[in-house]
């Protein structure tokens, strides 16, 4: 008891703050979502778990066609993330394929076309008010190469001195300006001599 510190009267004991925030939780930010919605979404993504990457470009094309057909048949929204899973790869590898790394140009073109299909679907969903425009903008910047950009066109001034003069004319202009300084200096010296 002797070691106990007494607080002044009228103070309130502080409750320890919890770390983290519910606002960062996906579950805390779900809108009009039921448990069956969550189960369906998990099932749609998890079905591709454990797939191996395609062995060749034909298998890649077949998987992309199957993925988009399944999305259409089951009413599943296609996403870049699920497309990568359907191909048995990651978004990072998908980006490498799209940029013609670790694959040939045929696969790069397939990935670009598939991403363009998903981008078109996202754009239509945003235009029809089915997803918030900010969600579309975020996805477009992260997946489809959209960026905020201003183009500033700079044209060089063709005559930075304001008029066209030859080298001889510029030399004479410089000499005349120096003579003016010399004459002013001589006048100032003469005035000083008259003072003394």
Short description:
The chain has 7 helices and no strands. The protein has 196 residues and is an all-alpha fold. Helix 5 (105-127) runs antiparallel to helix 6 (133-143).
Report on this structure:
By secondary structure, the chain is mostly helical. The chain has a domain of 78 residues. Helix 4 packs across helix 5. 11% of the residues are buried.
List the topology elements.
Elements: H1 35-46, H2 57-74, H3 80-86, H4 91-98, H5 105-127, H6 133-143, H7 167-195
Q: Considering DSSP H and I runs of 4 or more, what fraction of the residues is helical? A: 55-70%
- What summary fits the major beta sheet? none
Task: Evaluate the radius of gyration.
Answer: 36 Å
How many β-strand stretches?
0
Mean pLDDT figure:
80
Describe the global form. elongated
Low-confidence stretches: none
Along the chain, the helix and strand elements come as: HHHHHHH
> How big a fraction of the residues is strand?
under 5%
Quote the distance from N terminus to C terminus: 95 Å
Tag the structure with descriptive keywords:
196 residues; mainly alpha; 7 helices
